[in-house]
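Deliverable D5.2: sample structural annotation.
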Amino acid sequence: MSKGNRLYRAAASLAVVAVVGAGLTACGSGSGGGSGSNGPLVIGASISLTGDFSDSGKAVERGYQLWANTVNAHGGILGRQVKLDIVDDASSPTQVVTNYQNLINKDHVDLTFGPFSTLLTVPAAQVAHRYGYAFLAPAGGGPQVFAQKLDNFFFVQPAPVVDAGEAFANFILGLPAAQRPRTAAYAELDDPFSAPVAENIRQRFEAAGIKTVYKQVYPSETADLSPVMAALAATKPDVIVGGTQSEDAYAQVKALVQLKYNPKFMFQANGANAPVDFPNNVGTSNTSGIIGSADWFPGSTASGSAAFTAAYIKAYGGNANQVDDNSAEAYSVGQLVQDVAQKTGKIDNATLISSLHSGRWPTLLGNLSWDDTGAPKGQYNLVQWQNGKLVPIYPASSAKAKPIVPKPNWGQ
């Protein structure tokens, strides 16, 4: 995402060493592009390296590149070195279509990996389907994607994105009655990812008797969220649900800090779950108690997580708490290609599609499986900012810390 004042401009966003080194260097035949069975395995991806989605897009690129570097260091896949063909879509749904058409018809890539955001994934998946390519996407799991019912599409996260809202609703409604909010307010970006997450929460809350005191859907070109958040704060809601991407997530928090209104609970669909960009934009002291969703977190026991974390830090610096889960999602896309190659001894689009439609497949995000629309069948975790870092708090099976309830005041 861009660092400017613009919000998103359109409605839409195996162990690393042990398994990579085991069983993936045998000879095998591939199909797809023009590289041939003895040449490199060329994988094309359109990623938002510039424009509104560039923060998350660059995290996706890091995940793809780390996976390719790691697998190549251990002999490649079925004896073939992986070569990434990455092009910038400038966060544009028009450009993303052109990019995938060129990757398939001009570059003749063997496989395609997905972009960032629902906005770009919807048209990109259609292009891949037209040419019979499997389309594994680390982001872009809004309802519009699954409504296309494409048999080549696989969303590489634990669940459809609306389930991130489901997890928050379950958490709130599972609190003791004395701690539950009585009123709620909703500020939603007009976006095919963000708004559905917030709306799912609203429906659950209203059904449980939590009164809606404010709701506003703001257009993607909104440059100043201060009026929206001022009107929201005037209703004094117990819980604020932000149907956000990133730029607007930062803007919501900044406006609330300026207004000196602190809710008892605050959840954001996206933005608050970025371990580096969120505190860099709103201030670490203003993150405390804010809740987001996540599918990967430091200390995860899912397949390959410890080795992935070590490799990420070695390649990009920082520490485990600064690893972006967008990178883990992108890395998991590559893991699935490895998994299928190891099991079948083949690596082509038809084999990927047929194989992933059956069984469960180990990744950094857990063991994944999908229905016939490409929707995964698992669940998300909730993470909360505590002491300057994101920690999982829900469900209990994944929690590393107790939730902070209510949310601390700004600046703490």
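Annotation notes: The chain has two domains: 41-159+300-368, 162-299+381-394. Confidence is low (pLDDT under 50) at residues 1-36.
The annotation will be released with the project's public dataset once the embargo ends.
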